[in-house]
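Annex B, item 7. Sequence and structure tokens for protein A, then protein B.
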Amino acid sequence: KAIAERDDVRSIWLNRKLSYFIANSRQNSGVNKIQGTDFVNINGDTDYSGKGVTIMVNDSGIDATHQDLFFGDVVIDNVEAAIQSSALAKMSTTETFISRGQYNTDVNTDHGTHCAGIIAGSGAMSDGKYKGVAPDAKLVGYGSGADLTILDAVSGYDYAINHRYDYQSPLRIISNAWGSTGNFDANSPIGLASYKAYTLGILSIFSAGNSGAGKSSHNPYAQLPWVISVGAGNSHGHLVDFSSRDLSYKTGSFTMPDKQEWTYNNQVTVVAPGHYMVSTRSSNNGLAYSADDDFLFDSAYTPFYSRLSGTSIATSYTAGVAALMMEANPLLSIEEIKQLIAKSATQMLGYQAWEVGAGYIDIRAAVAAAKTHVKAYK
């Protein structure tokens, strides 16, 4: 109570546990439409694959021994945050408790590796069949392990902000396939950290959550107005039942420490593929594939890939799409990327805007919109 009364304290938060948003459940992504001959012919001798864009996967870690995510090629920095939360309880620094240049930081779950493959996997172990959305983007893995807390997530942001210029192409996107339920509060540690990233030109993408419809089910961090909130859709263009959305539309205004006024809307920004998606599996996870659904997945690839569902998958897919847009038009602001993704999305009839936002993401339309967008200078 005494600390809360100090003028220099913005908020006080319990270091509560967060959840990764994968449900144990690939569909055709359509990415070939913007990386093939047809798109090249339409758009004047070029296609897009994420070149020049660096993305942080703020997650459980990445197995960069996987050929699709090979360290030094796809994954250019892989950080392990050992005992981060317990260490921070005693020390004021984060740098002391991380290890850079690790080949495999996804040592006890498949989550981060799967998400990384959706974003930028090379498809090397499947002859390109399970290539990621932006296979020429570069990845930075920040691994907090199976047990993720608020301090762990903020530590990932701390690393991204302090090391964004360490790479040949500066870090421009942070993919956050995790969160919680509860009420929106811009003063949360993650709210403040993601806002700092935003002011530095780093786009944050968050999972809407896997709690389905219900009061306060929408990930509160996904509601921050400077981030993109992603729900999960299936191959038929429908919202998957587990994809989080509140019971009705809500909005509110608030002021950040820099005196900038903002309005938040409790609704998903866009829906993206997140049902039965095949991607890279960690070498440490022997249970990442369910033999009960063989007909949905070529079992010849099971040593190297797994099939999962969740808004985590949709978030990773959207991070890849954002990378393609940034390559097509490097001058786009975070607001413009968010607006163009929404404007180019396909409407989902039968759903409310607070459930699915602008609708189902259209990768080809989004990249084309980015390429042709002209910034309106005052």
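Protein B:
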Amino acid sequence: MNAMPSRVLVVMPNWFGEALFATPLLRALRQAAPSAWIAALGPPRAREMLANNPCVNACVLYDEDGAHRTLPAKWRLIQQVRGMRLDAALILRRSLSRTWIAALGGVRRRIGVANLKSGWLLTDRVSAPAASMHKARAYLELLRPFDIVPPADQELRYEYYPSQAERLDAQRLLQVKGFDERRPFAILHPGANWDHKRWVPENFAAVADRLTQQHHVVIAITGSPADVPVAQQIRARMTTTPILLTGQTSVRQLGACVERASLVISNDTGALHIACALDRPVIALYGPTSPQLTGPLGRADRTIVLHHADCCPKIPCFAPDHPPHPGMSAISVEDVCEAAAGLLRQSDEVQKERV
């Protein structure tokens, strides 16, 4: 039996969604070692996703493109890691710079996926995951050197923790926007990091109008400042008036708004996975990416993934310079409206049972 480390560094991946994919690993590690000191090292995105997470004792910033882009800055970070006197590091990304930081930081046991790029710096090399394995499951495989058996698939869930202050901020923001709390609240999140992962604005607009007219839903459109033009296109095509939150929230404020939603309709992006972590009913729109690899891990009765893989020449398709994508075009307004009606009906029935 391998002894559990008492001081562990989890080296995080880069993106919002991938940071949430790592939360089942953090939960399993905490359950196996309740008294361990667990730190997470990663970019600002990872730190935002892990705020208030009870499985993490500290978040250490590694901003490779910003604060730590120079060698002196990296060396200061290495000294910081050395001062933590860590027993082990779980390196979730196949990254030479991150693995060097752990090695030069004196971490005695460095665990990661076997690979040509940085595997030679690892002390424990875990076999590469199967091609069809979800990233959250693949991360959990890194616990096997400690004889920790990963949880079953049905037990996997993302974790995200809004603070009370963030909840109050969201409530005030929605009140300023004229939100009627007596009506169901649906969020449309039309953004994505690649254009060919985006459903077209006219489809979002058509769904929004139908939800408003048939289910009396309040529509809010969310996204980053870069998503403002697409949000304006959606609003211009709608016959009803949505609440525009695009570009007006931080990621943490967005999470608190998502927590209040009766329904979230989103492309494959971080907001979708935040919604799953908060146990919201979600409709996930997938085209060039694979739900098997990066899909939402939410409750089966609250999570609907719309994906027409047979329409696409290759999944996943890493060609962001070639939009539009046939998989996204294959998702119809009818598909989304039918899924939304079922989730809203289910939510309404649950509400009536509580009353």
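Comment on protein B: Residues 350-355 have pLDDT under 50 and may be disordered.
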